[in-house]
Amino acid sequence: MEKRIITFIVALAFTAGVFFIPANVQATNIYKGVDVYEYSNISDYQQLKNSGVSVVIQKASEGMTYNDSLLSYRASMLPQYGFKVGYYHFATNNGQPVAQAQHFLNQIQGLHLDTILWLDIENQPNWTKSQAIDFTNKFIGYVQGRGYKIGVYTGLSFYYEYLSGNIGNVPIWLASYGKQPVQYPDAASWQYTAAGTVAGMVGDVDRDYFNDSIFTGVIPTKELTTLQKQICALQYQLNNDYNAKLLCDGIAGRNTSAALQGIEPLITKGHKSHVVLWLQQKLVMYGYLKEGSYKPMTYDEPTFQAVTNLQKNWGRATSGVLGLDTWSIFLNN
């Protein structure tokens, strides 16, 4: 937020040869917003509202002792102009998440509140992965235990490297400048710039697109298609076998393609992995491989032959090599 950032894991099971993945998420509405702190200059509240901004998230506190000097003033002013108002706490790595949560709640006590509360945790050099996970979960747990709903704001890289799959199922708000996160709009709100402009504010502005979860604290669900479940299962196994760090979202985008391209030299005869098992199950579904004819998880001769037959029928080079041209068959059918 004020410190610039350049910067769900899913469980799965194979049941009766079918790929099973829990439901994905789907947002219903998008709200234009800004997030501010004491050095953000709101020059005209009415102009800001007329610009289409409907949500303002105000900094409340940082660490154990710091309080934003404009918190109370803006908590009073913003509702007068019809803004939906929320508050965030900027985390510092002092090993005391509960004390920081207490400090945060003390500052927002009695203030007008429309959205869930937010924990802002960022800047990888200041945290180890275990510290970030422990702090986030304890902070969330304390706030929830006091009857509040809460979400997490962070940078895209911090989320992938530290938090993804390691924190509770709470709304996520991701900072990613110049690149739309794959999680948006279904699974996350998005801070898309830290250098925006908007009528009614002076200087660089943090601009955001928020989904419904900022009000409900609940991530709406939507069932994935069968193919999306299969892709989600593949993403999970790429993470499991090759530490690919993919979001298991059922979308075969650039990151998934890059991960598959990276393991192309590895999957030769005799190679063993859960990804090979995924491949074998798809080949069985297509009718190129018979159950009981192959060794599960092993790229054996029957699996190799099934791949070459598939490649021949789809006009690919019959090499048995799993390049992106061959993976595209599995990812689109």
From TrEMBL:
Q: A Pfam family name for this chain?
A: PG_binding_1
Record SUPFAM superfamilies: (Trans)glycosidases, PGBD-like
The chain positions of domain Peptidoglycan binding-like read 276-328
Q: Please name the InterPro entries in this protein's record.
A: GH, Glyco_hydro_25, Glyco_hydro_fam25_subgr, Peptidoglycan-bd-like, PGBD-like_sf, PGBDSf
What are the UniProt keywords, alphabetically?
Answer: Glycosidase, Hydrolase
The answer to keyword DNA-binding applying to this record is no
Q: What is this protein called?
A: GH25 family lysozyme
**Organism per entry:** Clostridium lapidicellarium
